[in-house]
Amino acid sequence: MSTTLSSLTGPLQRFSVRHAAHVPLMVTTALLIAMFSIGSLQYEGFFSAQVLLNVLIDNGFLLVVAIGMTFVVLTGGIDLSVGSVVALSTMLTAWLVERNGVPLALAVPLVLLVGAAGGALMGWVIHTFEIQPFIVTLAGMFLARGLCYMISTESISLTDPTTARIAQTRVLLPGGLFVSPAVVIALVVLALAFVVLHHTRFGRTVYALGGNESSARLMGLPVGRTKIAVYAVSGLCSALGGLLLTFYMLSGYALHAVGMELDAIAAAVIGGTLLTGGSGFVLGTALGVTVLGLIQTVISFQGTLSSWWTRIVIGGLLFVFILLQRLFGGARTAE
Amino acid sequence: TEPATTGTTGKGSSDGKLVLGFAQVGAESGWRTANTKSIREAAEKAGITLKFSDAQQKQENQIKAIRTFIQQKVDVIAFSPVVESGWDTVLKEAKNAGIPVILTDRAVDSQDTSLYRTFLGSDFVKEGQEAGKWLVKEYEGSSAPVNLVELQGTTGSAPANDRKAGFADAIKGDPKFKVVASQTGDFTRAKGKEVMQAFLKSHKDIDVLYAHNDDMALGAIQAIEEAGKKPGVDIKVISVDGIKDAFVAMQEKKINVVVECNPLLGDQLMDLAKKVAAGESVPRRVEVKEGVFTQDQAAAALPGRQY
Amino acid sequence: MTAPPTPRTPPRTDRPVLEAHGIRKAFPGVVALDGVDLRLFPGEVHALMGENGAGKSTLIKVLTGVHPPDAGTVSVDGSPQRFTEPLEAQHAGISTVYQEVNLCPNLSVAENILIGREPRRLGLVHWSALHRRAAQLITELELDLDVRLPLSAHSLAVQQLVAIVRAVDIKAKVLVLDEPTSSLDRDEVAQLFALVRRLRDRGAAILFVTHFLDQVFDLCDRVTVLRNGRLEGEYRIDELTPVTLVHRMVGSELRTLDDLAETSHTGTTAASESADAPFLSARGLARTGSIQPYDLDIHRGEVIGLAGLLGSGRTEAARLLFGADHADGGELRIDGERAVLRSPRAAIAHKIAFCSENRKAEGLIGELTVRENIVLALQAARGWTRPLSRTRQDEIAARWTEVLDIRPADPEAQVRNLSGGNQQKVLLARWLLTDPELLILDEPTRGIDIGAKTEIQRLVTRLAAEGTAVLFISAELEEVLRLSHRVGVLRDHRLVATLPNDPTLTPDRILGTIATGATS
Amino acid sequence: MTPPDDTGAGGRPARAPGARRLTGHRLFWPAAVLAALLLGNVALTHDFLAVRVQNGHLYGSLIDILQFGAPLILVSLGMTLVIATRGIDLSVGSTVAIAGALACEHIATAQDPGSPGTVTSAIAVALGVAAVIGLLNGFLVARLGVQPIVATLVLMVAGRGVAQLITDGQIISVSSSAYKMIGGGYWLTLPFAVLLAAALVAVTSLVTRRTALGMLIESVGGNPVASRLVGIRAAGLLVMVYVVSAVCAAVAGLMISSNVSSADGNNAGLWIELDAILAVVIGGTALTGGRFSLGGTVLGALIIQTLSTTIYTLGVPPETTLVFKALVVIVVCLVQSPAFRARLSRRRRPAAPDPAPAGARRQEVHP
Ligand SMILES: Nc1ncnc2c1ncn2[C@@H]1O[C@H](COP(=O)(O)OP(=O)(O)OP(=O)(O)O)[C@@H](O)[C@H]1O
Ligand SMILES: Nc1ncnc2c1ncn2[C@@H]1O[C@H](COP(=O)(O)OP(=O)(O)OP(=O)(O)O)[C@@H](O)[C@H]1O
Ligand SMILES: [Mg+2]
Ligand SMILES: [Mg+2]
């Protein structure tokens, strides 16, 4: 009987169907390049690779956190706790190392474990009791931030010289450029996340879950396990992001990373991940983080904006950005 | 220590003017806005090009801003740290780039004192102590217990921590002072009012209110009035900052005392910036002029308040 | 419940591979299953029959760990099991195609087939092997698809086939198929049956749910009949005739099968109608990438059937007439006036109704009640400021529940909890209610039991007699022939012929037209 | 976030007798939680529920909860409709700030700050601008198909800047008794804000439930594709809900600024979007859209406000406030979760006779 659609769907069309999802990615990249070019024309000292690298240095932790968030969002969930978990990780590290003399080499895995376990716990509650992720992770957000305060309301400095040395290490690149080790770590996490999402069974199950959770269950996929794992990944990424932030700031503080969950969600969504799940790329998230970072850089370079104009311009740039993104890459309009 | 002052004037701007990069905390209060305004106006007056960046209360944004200042090769960097700790890395980058740094408003706790040239600002602990001292003096001689309620600033923020600690320090010697309730009012009028309203319901005999800033005090005053009591009389009100509205309230006898925290340090900052850029030596610590105002001084001081 | 008069199948020598005993399952307000037994032996094809809402799908879900039973036991190879996840059932060798297409539309066809057991290399998914394997499985069913395309790019029938391919791939001891054939053409059905027989001969047990009696008699060895959630009985198929089987399912003297004959008619009325100006007339209507330019006139009182193979473009042709997709070529006249249908809303304003084949994705609002789903189209046409009063809604819901025999007859039940066939009836009620001038029915009898099917066919005939134009799409050629005045034949996204339904028109002639692509 | 739709767990009992019907009601559990919170307070502060007349109006903790809860109720009200369409509105906090700032600025610069005319025009300006904000959000979501969370993020970020721009970064104090009425005044011994909120809730539920609006919104949120095919003008509905949400937020902004007679561009309504979403979700409306419950939202908002008041009255130290809040939120959502209750009752009741010996289960499973 042989179906006949192949006669219709020519190679070009097949290509476009198969790669429709990539279009927003390409558009976003093009817009980023445009933004950088305009910045370079506008501001002295902007046209330099170091400016771009600084975006990475200053947003490495956000990238790691946003990658974790991407996993969650791909399953159709949301994790509001990430900002607080980042803060908790900075606090915990500083408290362990400074106040309790725990060696750094022990504190780091401990903090990562706490993050992953916290995430897994939230995932377990979400799955087992069928409670909306929004509330569970909101409770997680309160709890983690609250624990920070319970450790200390003051910020704790890391005074240990090794820590400072690690923090101030610069990975030198050719041409007098440099990045921080955190950038390297963030990029490794990015690569890992890419491989996991696109080339492992777990990653594909994440997408399946976002496509249709009840179908995924009927297809015999391990829905519960995957869900729990996804929140654990997000928790782990937040803890790692927190560690990077600890080194970035050399301190633990309960008010670090306030509102970072929104930045992370925004980065993922600007990068083309659908909040309803099932569609998106972790590389898009990296682009999203860069967009947010670059907007901030442009504003710093501008240097004449008052506090309120800063906000208005950030909002305005974001607006223009998503508008152009829609206009050029609007293949997937939600009808 | 002699910092590497290779900073030659005019690197960052083509017209030869001194360029100052200033990383502000945010615009979270009227106090902060007045602070920003003072700096802007002073820069203009002093002929200094100001690169201004607003961190929206986030330390990581301030660090990013400082980094872009370094990238732009400004002559001097000044900033009001959100918190004391966590500045070493970026300050070291500034130092390596040969850009001198001035701290305003609040110090950093860095061990390496070569990372900044000078500190210009207020001492929140001292403000809390001043508030406490006034209270101790006010109740000198009486031995009846005094019930205090405290409206704290944003939990974990430096002014909240320090003003609480300073105040507690000043009154700890006298057991008659008892803090019966202490809650955060997030430095805002709305929260100040809401929390005070709840305090008034759960504690029938409040004698004194200590608010970490004027806005919370002003909100709380409304709550006290709505509960049918007289602020400043039935409940004494102590506040910090010294914004104009607080002076008005003080004149109306609703606030008993305001400990000033002066945001107008623009001129002093510009002076320091010029000196630092020129490689002149400056004192490690410059205090801004601040006072403690009571009701009888309010009327006289009010016309002079700028914010 | 009285015991069935017919004796049970003589016990086999080998023990059942899957056995359920005394299964009870209640949902809030409904007892879906009550004391149901089922035995599946290796090497048999076992039919599970019953009216819409009899509990077939629920039984399958209980057997495969989707729903925990309230009482009763399920055993596999003689040992009791308590599956809590479909995954566990799969591990125990039970592979299932559930009634609605339950796949992930965002993944590619290949992944949908193989996810969960994809070929791996060094722990990573081996993509090229995956695509190769999927393509190979697809060709086993003599399908030709690009397995790298996302599933959502394919029509519902293709999706259904993909679901089957997925299930068949597992080296299963038991294969459960819940109405797999409801939107498939003869050829696919034949392919599927060949496959099922191969599996049976290999010793697998197949549980097969369908509403097509001929398929049961064609394929199955034994049958278990459910009625109102209770076990009616288990029979050998050669003990039954279609009439006795229907009798067992319905329980009473049925609104007879022979009724069907009465509803059929030949194109006598059509001739007289076609003299009038057509209600709707399409000239060169087309949409790039989905349907080639076609001409079609539909008169009031006329039923036009669309025939074609899987994916021939019937749905897509119909969607253009409803504004569901935007035509990018040709023109459309309605009552002689040029009309541009930018949205379904515009079509509805012209009194056109479209009952989609994909009830889950494009039809029902699962969370809303039966009543709300029924009145939705009418209400949308009136706009939100002119609400139908609650009494009016209740009346409407009660009337249509009765006319179409929607069960449970509770207008306040959430529509997603209804059985598949009953959902289909709700969808039909929604559109019939709008009193359309042109009613487009895309596979309206999908998943509907014989009794209700007769009812719907009768309705279509009556509507046409009252002057409604009907465009009727169905994978069942007999049904198309029975109802239509003229039959449009599609092939490769092109309308190749429009044949008047005279006595010479037979299914074979239509198939011939499809095969040659020429008017005969 | 997709709820499993093939399991019976989400189903509402259709005909359950007596107590079952009561506990099965969708508002039962939020109401129970609220009652429990209030009772808990009474246990600790005995006159918590006492309400007396003072200065000619009612006075007491309950009245405070209602009064301070009123703005949150309003914001959540609009948010409920947005969420029902599968959307989310992050810009409400900024709208709160903008509305307050506009009104206060208008009054502060007016000739006669106390006159009803000034106040009326101030309100009109604030609501008008809010409507524009809503239109912009709606346009981005409905016409351009931008995901609601990013679309409204734009105004969330920029809006607060606009509010500060209006106030020039200062806190604008106004003294206008007419304006004070909205958020701080009393009418018929009750806080005017409470009456206003109640009226708006009543109007919204009337409009959504007596017309077909509610059903159409639920339909668009429940299945957008099917809704289009049914002929619902989704774009219009979407724009409408975003406008309603913004206007509700603006009224809340007026209340908040009126209550303290000042506008604070930076802090007014900060994080109120989170509280509002939480209120909606506690009230039983799913973030995945579809069915919504305005009554549930009101209860949710009251739960949140009661929780805050409880924290102040109990004297929970600020450092532990968040932990306390987290625990309460967890308990609230566990209590509301049918799956949790099912587990509890299964554990309490002697387990139903399990035909499968526990040990046999895994052994038999084939690889
Ligand atoms: N999740 C559920 N919640 C409530 N009732 C349900 C649920 N699932 C099924 N039912 C009810 O159980 C009964 C049996 O439904 P089931 O889907 O098993 O019927 P079926 O025999 O498969 O019918 P069809 O031929 O129409 O597919 C119906 O009355 C249905 O309404
Ligand atoms: N965007 C698309 N890209 C590629 N192919 C598509 C796309 N949309 C539809 N098709 C293909 O076009 C074919 C025509 O589908 P249509 O639904 O009209 O067929 P049909 O005649 O109704 O048959 P059936 O419903 O039985 O599959 C489908 O098989 C589908 O695979
Ligand atoms: Mg079924
Ligand atoms: Mg079709």
UniProtKB/TrEMBL annotation, chain A:
Localization, UniProt: Cell membrane
Short name of one Pfam family: BPD_transp_2
PANTHER family, per the entry: ABC TRANSPORTER PERMEASE PROTEIN YPHD-RELATED-RELATED, INNER MEMBRANE ABC TRANSPORTER PERMEASE PROTEIN YJFF
Keywords (A to Z) from UniProt: Cell membrane, Membrane, Transmembrane, Transmembrane helix
Organism name: Streptomyces litmocidini
Main localization (coarse): membrane
Protein name: Galactofuranose ABC transporter, permease protein YjfF
Membrane topology term: Multi-pass membrane protein
TM ranges: 20-39, 51-74, 80-97, 104-125, 131-151, 171-197, 228-250, 262-288, 308-328
From TrEMBL, chain C:
PANTHER family: CARBOHYDRATE TRANSPORT ATP-BINDING PROTEIN MG119-RELATED, GALACTOFURANOSE TRANSPORTER ATP-BINDING PROTEIN YTFR
InterPro entries tied to this protein: AAA+_ATPase (IPR003593), ABC_carbohydrate_import_ATPase (IPR050107), ABC_transporter-like_ATP-bd (IPR003439), ABC_transporter-like_CS (IPR017871), P-loop_NTPase (IPR027417)
Protein name: Sugar ABC transporter ATP-binding protein
Entry-linked Pfam families: ABC_tran (PF00005)
Domain ABC transporter intervals: 18-253, 272-517
Coiled coil: none
One GO MF term: ATP binding
Automatic annotation (TrEMBL), chain D:
Signal peptide residues on this chain, from the entry's feature table: none
Localization per Swiss-Prot or TrEMBL: Cell membrane
Transit peptide among keywords: no
Annotated region described as Disordered, given as residue ranges: 346-367
Segments passing through the bilayer: 27-45, 65-83, 90-109, 121-142, 149-166, 186-208, 229-256, 268-287, 294-316, 322-340
Membrane topology listed for this record: Multi-pass membrane protein
Name of the molecule in the record: ABC transporter permease
InterPro entries: ABC_transp_permease (IPR001851)
Annotated keywords: Cell membrane, Membrane, Transmembrane, Transmembrane helix
Record has Glycoprotein as a keyword: no
